[in-house]
Amino acid sequence: MKRRTFLTTLALGSAGLSVRALSKTSGATFVVAHGAWSAGWAWKKMHPLLIAAGHRLFTPTCTGLGERFHLADPSNSLETHINDVLGVLTYEDLRDVILVGHSYGGMVATGVADRAADRLSKLVYLDAFVPRDGQAQKDLIGPAAYRRMQEGAAASGDGWRVPSNPIPSDTSDADRKWIEERRGPQAIKTFETPLHLHHGETKLPRSYIYCKRAAPGDVFRQFADRARREGWGYFEMDASHSPFITAPEALTKILDTIARTA
């Protein structure tokens, strides 16, 4: 067996997929709008799995977070992060993209889909916010949660950085250490900026992936219910809020299914 074929087969085996399955995949290009306090690094486990399934994965990091932490500034807003992802679509010349928004990234993905629908084929919300025109994330989490954000920013010393939420309790000790070393605060303006849609509700096919091991308050159930009411593609996972870390194989199978679906 040639080295390249061997390595591909090895990767497929680790993903629970076969060479035959690979030959039937759509070869989709996934782009991720990551969640709050996170960055592209958080999707590390997903790269080999999606490659093994025949797909490409781009995980850009939004301004002020991860390896772009040095660009953190009070002016960082939802618009900043929408433009970050739009830039990747443009400069990587990506088309027919399946855009995945996780958590806060649902705000970003909705804005990107409004402005670059011609570059997208599908929109996937992974345990994510699904805003309507004029809504900010602070409107979707409710006044009590927003007040806690404000208090956290005030306590941080500079008044504009919101400390991260707790890591899901089912995260392994090794992954928890990895996450804690990389997660950082996020500008409060990103949660306060209303999303303005220029083209109304998207006409792109949409899917929602709901993680059933919800955190207290379960803010994402409302969007899962909306997805089912409106007839989107709908999936549930027996996982907590970050399945790309805690359940990457199961998430890969769902994303592969979405890619194969017309």
Write up this protein:
With 262 residues, the protein is α/β, with parallel strands linked by helices. It has one domain (18-260): Alpha/Beta hydrolase fold, catalytic domain (Rossmann fold, 3-Layer(aba) Sandwich). It contains 12 helices and 8 strands. The strands form 2 sheets. It has a 6-stranded parallel beta sheet, sandwiched between helices. A two-stranded antiparallel sheet has the order 5-6. Helix 3 links the parallel strand 1 (29-33) and strand 2. The longest helix is centred in the first third of the chain and has 14 residues, at 78-91. The two termini are 34 Å apart. Residues 1-25 have low confidence and may be disordered.
Name the features.
262 residues; alpha/beta; Rossmann fold; two-stranded antiparallel ribbon; 12 helices; 41% helix; 14% strand; globular; disordered N terminus
Strands, helices and their partners?
Elements: H1 3-15, H2 19-24, E1 29-33, H3 46-52, E2 56-58, H4 78-91, E3 97-102, H5 105-115, E4 120-126, H6 137-141, H7 143-155, E5 161-162, H8 173-180, E6 186-187, H9 189-192, E7 206-211, H10 221-229, E8 233-237, H11 243-246, H12 248-260
Parallel strand pairs: 1-2, 1-3, 3-4, 4-7, 7-8
Antiparallel strand pairs: 5-6
The main pleated sheet reads as: 6 strands, parallel
- Protein structure class: alpha/beta
Low-confidence stretches: 1-25
Order of strands, widest sheet: 2-1-3-4-7-8
User: CATH H-level name... which superfamily?
Assistant: Alpha/Beta hydrolase fold, catalytic domain
Q: Mean pLDDT, nearest integer? A: 91
Annotated CATH architecture? 3-Layer(aba) Sandwich
